[in-house]
Amino acid sequence: MIELAIVGGGPAGLTLALGLLRRDPTWARRMVLIERARYPREKLCAGGLGERGWKILARLGVQAEVPQVLIAGISVRSRLGHHIARPGLCGRVLRRVEFDAALAEAAVRAGLVIQAGTTVRDITESDDGCVIHTDQGDMAARMVVGADGVGSAVRRSMGLGGGGLRAQVLEVDTPRVAGDLPPDLIHFDASDRAYAGYIWDFPTPIGGEVRMCRGVYVLNVRGGEAAGVPSGDGHKLVELLGAYMADKGLDIGDCRLKRFGERGFEPKGPVATARRMLIGEAAGIDPVTGEGIAQAIEYGARAARLIHERGAAAPSAWGARLHGGRLGWDLAVRTGLLRAFYGSPRPRLEAAFAAAPRMLWAGARHWAAAPQRWGSVGLGLLQGGVGFLRGERPLLAAPAEAPLDPP
Ligand SMILES: Cc1cc2nc3c(=O)[nH]c(=O)nc-3n(C[C@H](O)[C@H](O)[C@H](O)COP(=O)(O)OP(=O)(O)OC[C@H]3O[C@@H](n4cnc5c(N)ncnc54)[C@H](O)[C@@H]3O)c2cc1C
């Protein structure tokens, strides 16, 4: 019986494999990664990767040499204004078809065995291990890690539902147009309070040129109505994105529409049984923004540390390790902010944000895993607190289109 089977070869599963092989090359014969597709395989995603994720991979000795657009800042539009924070290199936009294939190649070079073209259907657990039922026959493993994303078969096999934070996402690729921001910025338009979510414009490298990946993210929060979070049902994604694009002179009818789902992280939610554990989007990612690549990488790196330390006992310790660690806290804070962000306090929060644009700088630094300037954060919290208390009075709204100087 093999010691470890990883189901799913996206950033979470591949980082886990890379992390184990980096610690102990004998993992090459003690684990297998089962992947439904064959590389290079497409994964619907805008490909925005914060430096936090890139730095973790660099520590594992991996540098994916794939086409990418370097990102120096973040732009956000709300009802109350438009803000740009440009702290310098804070992330990059890659194409997942190329990035995931590069990670897989690095892992195979390090010794990983990938069983591609194999779909896991179900898993049964016994005292000494798991039987993995696949479309290519059954396999036995001492423990299984589910890194199989939003539709996780491993999660299903554990009797866990889809979760209470599910998003629908639609994206298209288009040329750049005159009104687009400079290509070193990623842009979020959260000016429509009718739904919990936003529209994005990310520069993206396709065929040697910079084009645009545009999309709409609409979150559905189970029970969110009680906190004033609009239901995600009934929103027509094509119409939302189409109207936004029409303002830029683009016709969504000319584009290939790409739809997918996402799952948000639920603090203290179950992520393991005695022999199975979930990482990456199978466990849950940031529900406020739908950001999941850097989180998937961090999940993989943390799971590798635990499995290396505890071996087959790792799944029993995973819940406490995840929820008590930096990643669990970060995701829990984001999930905790969700109801405020998209619920009834939203107008006041937007006012707070408009009064304290330096908080966007703090957000960009967080995305980049760059050191925070705590004095500036403290001042931002104070300014934001005043803005929150005052609400939407026009005096506090920042002038539209005003890019900000560094605080
Ligand atoms: C439209 C869209 C845009 C997004 N944009 C961004 C963005 O810009 N930045 C960002 O950070 N995040 C973004 N995300 C989120 C991000 O794509 C995911 O959170 C991230 O890919 C999760 O990584 P993962 O490794 O957990 O899972 P995945 O990347 O989904 O990988 C799972 C792997 O498991 C395999 N698999 C699935 N089921 C089985 C099975 N039964 N048997 C075997 N193999 C299986 C799949 O083929 C896949 O290779 C976006 C998501 C969407 C839908």
Topology of helices and strands:
Elements: E1 2-7, H1 11-23, H2 27-30, E2 31-34, E3 48-50, H3 51-59, E4 68-71, E5 73-78, E6 81-85, E7 91-94, H4 96-109, E8 114-115, E9 120-125, E10 130-134, E11 137-146, H5 153-157, E12 165-174, E13 185-189, E14 197-206, E15 209-221, H6 237-247, E16 258-263, E17 276-278, H7 293-310, H8 314-324, H9 326-342, H10 346-355, H11 358-368, H12 374-390
Parallel strand pairs: 1-2, 1-11, 2-8, 5-13, 11-17
Antiparallel strand pairs: 3-7, 4-7, 5-6, 9-10, 10-11, 12-15, 12-16, 13-14, 14-15
The site of flavin-adenine dinucleotide (FAD) has 38 residues, from helix 1, strand 12, strand 16 and helix 7.
Main features:
seven-stranded mixed β-sheet; 17 strands; alpha/beta; FAD/NAD(P)-binding domain; disordered C terminus; single chain; globular; 407 residues; binds flavin-adenine dinucleotide
Description:
- With 407 residues, this protein is of the alpha/beta class.
- The protein folds into three domains: 2-47 and 95-163 and 264-335, FAD/NAD(P)-binding domain (3-Layer(bba) Sandwich); 165-261; 345-396, no CATH class.
- Helix content is 34%, strand content 25%.
- The chain is built from twelve helices and 17 strands.
- The strands form three sheets. Strands 1, 2, 8, 9, 10, 11 and 17 form a seven-stranded mixed β-sheet that branches. It has a seven-stranded mixed β-sheet with strand order 6-5-13-14-15-12-16, sandwiched between helices.
- A hairpin with a 4-residue loop joins strand 9 (120-125) and strand 10.
- Helix 1 (11-23) packs parallel to helix 4, helix 3 (51-59) runs parallel beside helix 7 (293-310) and helix 10 packs across helix 12.
- The longest helix is centred in the last third of the chain and has 18 residues, at 293-310.
- The chain starts with a strand and ends in a 17-residue tail after the last helix.
- Mean pLDDT is 94; it is low at 395-407.
- Residues 7-13, 34-37, 43-48, 119-120, 147-149, 151, 153, 169, 171, 215, 260, 262, 280-281, 285, 290-294, 296 line the site of flavin-adenine dinucleotide.
- Flavin-adenine dinucleotide is lined by residues 7-13, 34-37, 43-48, 119-120, 147-149, 151, 153, 169, 171, 215, 260, 262, 280-281, 285, 290-294, 296.
